[in-house]
Every structure is written in C-alpha cells, then in structure tokens.
Design brief:
single chain, mainly beta, Ubiquitin-like (UB roll), 1 helix, 5 strands, globular
Length: 65
C-alpha cells in the first residue's frame, strides 16, 4: 500500500497505525500522530486502520533551545 508519511510517499505493508510505527522503527512512546489531518491518540493507534493513499504525520519532540 502507498502512504504519504511526513510529506514523502512510501510503500508499506502495515495495515494499522501502530503496525506502521513498528515497520518504520519509531519508538511510539514519544510521538504524536495524525491520519489525514486528524490527531490519533496513542491508545487508538492499534485500532486505527490505514488505506491506500492516506496521509500520515509522525511528530517527535526535539531537544535544543
């Protein structure tokens, strides 16, 4: 399936948002996620199904000042 992740197109096997984070090697404890512009809380990622063409945003906090 093809998804747009943080503005870049990717071909992935994952069928849920939680599986996508695992497939892309993200540590889900320190992330904010959105599917097609809607925030997806961490507790809902495993039940959040993905479809071809979806837009995913994955945001992680950064250190600095």
């Amino acid at each position: 399936m093809k998804l747009t992740i943080n503005g870049e197109e990717h071909a992935v096997d994952a069928r849920t948002l939680a599986a996508l984070l695992d497939e892309l090697d993200y540590d889900p404890s320190f992330l904010a996620t959105a599917l097609n512009g809607d925030v997806v809380p961490a507790g809902e990622r495993a039940a959040c199904g993905l479809s071809d063409g979806d837009r995913i945003e994955i945001l992680a906090p950064m250190q600095g000042g």
